[in-house]
Design goal:
This protein is an all-alpha fold and 423 residues long. The protein has 18 helices and 2 strands. The protein starts with 12 loop residues before the first helix and ends with a helix. Keywords: Membrane, Transmembrane, Transmembrane helix.
Length: 423
């Protein structure tokens, strides 16, 4: 069982525990939303374009992403262990405070056009942001009952993508308030710095979280008895309790590696191939993320009809087909429309696979299982490096898009056996 943080006593009695968990869920949802807004402004399209403009290298964009991924790999594994051994609430508080220093460093680096300092600050931010996201997710799962998890994880994804849609809207406002609305370095600096200042309105919400015992139907059992019966079945000589989450993580990691080869370069692709302005790119981003939010709202209903694993397989395969369409089109509105649809489908698998993993593993191991995401973070950086290399060598981003689609089709096909195993 998890230790109880004595510095933040839970509300007394069953009703107090229930109320504390409701508060925790609400605050977690706000944090997922607000962090997505901040990331969309400070660390997405404008920051990548800024790095590209001051370095004149697609490969440099990928290299920095790789460094961030490696840093996440180094820190997330021990952090996952700490999340299972220490007080998760206290860990969240420490990480929220720790983020202040690299955020300030990044602000200074962007204002001074200091690429080396910016690389260091981005690596430090990765060291803090990755563990915070993972511990926050485990904390959310701790405060939800098993039968609620697919719903709440879907709502978490929905709010995250709503935040990622609100971010471009705010960025669009900042662009139109600027005297020069083209892809100028001063515009990029101002938008990125505004996003970094958003830290002051996000991380302090951690102080509103409360201690509560993990929500479960059988706190006393805690071990194997708390898992569903299907996880104890044996397939291929391996218990599903291990086979299903490991296979799911490998497949999920493969889709993320594939995505990282192309998605980092979407703003650069639309700017280079279609001469898309910052304002129009933000409109595409808003529509993309609103579509994702709507799909994540619908995901629990779709997965209830098809099964979570089948829904994940179909979402990934559909996204791959649409990505091939993006790579082959030369009309701006068609390419943008297919890209929006591609993201809407391809990312809708996340709450399904997360729910499958959390249902298959013991509560006391959740932190370590979420730390496995660190491997995906590192390989994401490697994928971005490959995508940048291909773009520099071919003179276009479409080769990376085709490679992304091909790999994701293979991942979807490889997951079919698990779709037959998960009820």
């Amino acid at each position: 069982m998890l230790q109880v943080d004595q510095d933040t006593p839970p509300l007394v009695g069953p009703s107090g525990e229930k109320r504390a968990r409701k508060i925790n869920v609400a605050v977690c949802m706000y944090l997922f939303f607000a962090r997505a807004v901040q990331y969309a402004i400070a660390s997405r399209d404008f920051l990548d374009t800024y790095i590209m403009d001051i370095s004149s290298s697609n490969e440099k964009v990928g290299q920095i992403e790789s460094l961030c991924g490696i840093a996440a790999l180094i820190i997330l594994l021990p952090c996952g262990y700490l999340a299972d051994r220490c007080k998760r609430l206290r860990l969240l508080q420490y990480l929220a405070v720790a983020k202040a220093f690299p955020t300030l460093m990044a602000f200074i680096a962007v204002r001074q056009k200091n690429l080396l300092l910016l690389q260091v600050s981005m690596v430090l931010l990765a060291v803090v942001n990755g563990p915070f996201e993972q511990v926050l997710q485990v904390f959310l799962v701790d405060n939800t009952l098993p039968e609620q998890r697919t719903l709440f994880l879907s709502r978490k994804e929905m709010l995250s993508w709503l935040g990622t849609a609100v971010g471009p809207l705010l960025a669009l406002l900042l662009v139109n308030l600027h005297s020069d609305t083209s892809w100028s370095v001063p515009l990029l600096q101002n938008v990125v710095c505004a996003g970094l200042v958003g830290y002051l309105f996000v991380e302090p919400a951690v102080l509103l979280l409360r201690n509560a015992h993990p929500a479960t139907r059988d706190d006393a059992a805690g071990e194997v008895a708390s898992l569903p019966d299907w996880t104890q079945e044996v397939k291929c000589g391996i218990r599903k309790q291990w086979l299903v989450p490991v296979w799911t993580e490998i497949m999920w990691g493969g889709t993320q590696i594939a995505s990282s080869m192309s998605l980092k370069y979407i703003p650069l692709f639309f700017r280079q191939d279609f001469s898309m302005s910052p304002s129009w790119l933000m409109i595409v981003r808003v529509l993309e993320n609103l579509g994702l939010a709507a799909m994540n709202f619908a995901t629990p209903f779709i997965s209830a009809k098809t099964g979570r694993a089948w829904a994940a397989t179909l979402f990934i395969f559909a996204g791959a087909i649409l990505m091939l369409g993006v790579a082959s089109l030369h009309q701006t509105w068609l390419a943008a429309t297919l890209f929006i649809l591609r993201t809407t489908f391809a990312r809708a698998n996340v709450p399904c696979v997360q729910s499958i993993i959390f249902e298959s593993v013991l509560p006391k191991h959740r932190g370590r299982w979420t730390a496995i995401t660190s491997f995906k973070s590192a390989t994401n950086g490697a994928g971005a490096w490959v995508g940048g290399y291909l773009a520099d060598r071919t003179g276009d981003y479409r080769a990376g898009f085709v490679l992304t689609a091909s790999m994701q089709m293979l991942c979807a096909i490889s997951y079919v056996p698990i779709a037959f195993m998960v009820p």
